Predict the 3D structure of the following.
Amino acid sequence: ALKRLLGADKEECNNIIREINTLKQVSGHPNIIRFVAASFIDRTQNAGAAKRAEYLLVTELCKGGSLYDCLEKELAPDVVLRVFYQACKAVAHLHQQTVPINHRDIKVENFLLGGDGLLKLCDFGSASTDTYAPDVSWNAHQRDMLEDHLGRCTTPMYRSPEQLDTWANYPIGVKTDIWALGCILFCL
């Protein structure tokens, strides 16, 4: 599959490069989409047309659609168990890296069905090794900045309580992926 990513500024380009590097790092696990290649096309010098950096990301092709597509019909309990087990294995692989990776956008749309019959986690655009530890010393501006950031890299339906209420002063890290897995199990 080919994914085209456009970066209008340095921050967006850095985010795209981070996404590609994260996928390269975790690729090879049977439940994570396989990285094939990536390329960069510099269109920032174009006259007239949009001046954006263009990145092309090639991954394995998953013709089975997304897990979301499977929810149109009721799944048998053994299928739910098999699917959820594979989703957990993919997330565990991220969390077991030397520096744990938090996907931050675990949802049914980001799990694809591979040609090998396995579930594959994809879309690492929100993935991060950052953790946040709001506490009583944080002011409203710091919390607003964090909430704005989380709003850009997470899906509301799958957000954990600590992501929704930064005033509760709970740490925000890889455990948020576990909450999102629970949301997926509920959907299944």
The domain at 2-187 is CATH 1.10.510.10 (Transferase(Phosphotransferase); domain 1). The first helix runs from residue 10 to 26. The chain has six helices and five strands. The mean pLDDT is 90.
